[in-house]
Amino acid sequence: MVEKVISDFVVHGLSSIVIYPNPYRSKASEFSWETQEKLDYSIASRDGKICWIGKAEALSESVKLTSDAEVISGRGLSAVPGFVDSHTHLVYAGDRSAEFEMRVQGRKYLDILASGGGILKTVSAVRSMSEDELFHESKERAWKMIESGVTTLEIKSGYGLDLENEIKILKVVKRLAEDLPIRIIPTFMGAHAVPAEYRENSDKFVEMICRKWIPAIADSKLAKFNDVFTENKAFNVEQSRLILESGKKSGLIPKIHADEINVIGGVDLAVEIGAASADHLLKTGSDGIKKLAGSGVIPTLLPGTSTFLMESHHASAREMIEAGLPVAIASDMNPGSCQFYSASMIQTLAMLQLRMSASEALIAATLHSAHSLQVGNMTGSIETGKSMDLVLIEAGSFRQIGYRAGDNIVNMVIAKGIPVFSQ
Ligand code: NIG
Ligand code: FE
Question: CB within 6 Å of ligand 1 — which residues?
């Protein structure tokens, strides 16, 4: 007799489950999906980790429930892995709608930044807000993302641009991680823009980040990753290298905003330094894609941003996928260049703007994103041993996620084995 697995939480009555067969580094277009629509599936977990997946009829002979187990009906919904939003600037204050309209009328994003607006406008708003206020505002925003199916969320600092305010933001991120039921991953991004105080001497600003800020942030364990905006009018390659190298020495894993507006060598640096991911890559051409292939750097594409910036050209997702790259997608949710935050909307945009298939978009928003945050061993797919992070959708197939744009088909969100949202 086979021993039963012990479970304290079961979802039964699901019409389909998305299971990635042999996922990481496979071409998403080659996936076969073990979704068997209309079949009555169950998923069981214990202590927040998936312990059994199977047909409901086999449940009683395979799973022994604890006395306080919660058993819920999936009501014919479909289960997909909880969405992983691996790139956001969610902790911010203020509003940039005037800049949005200016851009619609033709002003350029980097010109607005260079004249003291853009990111720097948000910096003033953040500096004048208390930690508590910032926490409450950001928490509301985070809940909107959870309601769209996000169960793992990366959040960057970068609107403080002085040590005190960068720490304030990262403390808010820490409080969010303690307060919210999902997994939250903090990234330090002191090199998000050159603050007005250092406009004439950005090297001095970089030196201060490397010498003082990074060791302080690393010591206080407020961040896992260290990100930099490698771009004209932000940080050049040499400055970015110094920042990412210093971070590495202090145990912060490098990430990079590369080729968003101009190609200035961000991809080369990402490969050279072994970044966990290179994000944006809007302007990355065949050369850059060749360099990324086989490098281990995960390309994270942000179709909400290229849409919001009204770019006529979007990232070359097809070429990256053809090159075998495990493309990830994320929202980049921030007050300036992207106000799209719904995880399913980002999948819609990945399909419309990046020409990704529904399955490529889904794996990009889940498993590949999880790997870009180096949590692919614990979330991003429905597998025994991984965290019970699920989105239950009102549809017979995951293919409806991107298609039903503007309609939140997320019926229930389960994070670490706990239903955290339902409608
Ligand atoms: O990823 N490019 C730099 N950082 C953000 C935008 C931040 C902002 O405009 O407030 C981005 O697009
Ligand atoms: Fe960003």
Answer: 89, 118-119, 122, 229, 257, 260, 305, 332, 334-337
Give 331 Cα–ligand 1 centroid separation in angstroms.
Answer: 11
pLDDT tens profile 96-128: 999 999 999 999 999 999 999 999 999 999 999
Lowest mean pLDDT among 22-36, 61-75, 149-163, 377-391: 22-36
- Of 385, 360, 370, 384, nearest to 150 by C-alpha is 370
Give the CATH number of domain 11-81+380-422.
2.30.40.10
Q: What protein residues have CB closer than 5 angstroms to ion ligand 2?
A: 332
CA dist 160 and 122 (Å) reads 9
Smallest CA separation from ligand 1 atom 2, residue: 229
> How much is the pLDDT for 56?
84
Among 3.40.640.10, 3.20.20.140, 3.10.20.310, 2.30.42.10, what is the CATH number of 83-372? 3.20.20.140
Backbone angles phi, psi at 390, to 5 degrees: -130, 150
